[in-house]
Write a structure and sequence with these properties.
By secondary structure, this protein is mostly helical. It has two domains: 74 residues, no CATH class; 76 residues, no CATH class. It is 42% helix and 8% strand. The protein is built from seven helices and three strands; from the N terminus they run αβββαααααα. It has a three-stranded antiparallel β-sheet. A hairpin with a 6-residue loop joins strand 1 and strand 2.
Length: 160
């Protein structure tokens, strides 16, 4: 729900989450440098993601352990297996990976009208062309762009 890379999720600590006000904001230097430069990630944690944190953590408001990992029980090698097991339990019959969920996140934000520049920054990309590789084109996106095209009045007949 935040579009984070797997490395950023696995290294996310409570000190990276600003909980002073709602919505909570993740402020963390990306694990992967972009264009050779460090990039500060600043992502809002959605209400849905907050519910998941609340559901999975018994002490998510513990401000006394800022160095503690948000997801200490997850191993890199187990994430995709866990995703597939969860999908199966809720009846999703698709091959899921952490990376495919990142792509889904980007697509959902694009469909729901997130600005292209904002989406690029949200995903931690340096170029929007990279972000476009994450967005799965759909009829909903086509409709959004088609609705923005202005109709130009043509004085000549289009068909003879």
């Amino acid at each position: 729900m935040t579009g984070l890379r797997i490395g950023d999720v696995l290294t996310l600590k409570w000190k990276h989450i600003d909980r002073s006000d709602e919505p909570w904001i993740i402020r963390k230097i990306l694990e992967k440098k972009v264009g050779g430069k460090e990039v500060l990630l600043e992502n809002i944690i959605s209400k849905y993601a907050l519910c998941l944190l609340d559901w999975t953590q018994d002490d998510y408001n513990n401000l006394e352990q800022p160095e503690r990992f948000v997801f200490p029980q997850i191993e890199r090698t187990e994430i995709n297996t866990t995703l597939r097991e969860c999908a199966e339990k809720v009846g999703i019959d698709k091959h899921l990976t952490f990376h495919s969920s990142r792509r889904t996140c980007a697509t959902n934000f694009m469909i729901n009208g997130m600005d292209r520049y904002a989406l690029m920054k949200f995903m931690g990309h340096r170029s929007f062309n990279t972000t476009l590789k994450y967005v799965k084109w759909s009829g909903m996106i086509s409709k959004e762009f088609a609705d923005k095209i202005e109709v130009v009045k043509v004085n000549k007949p289009l068909v003879k």
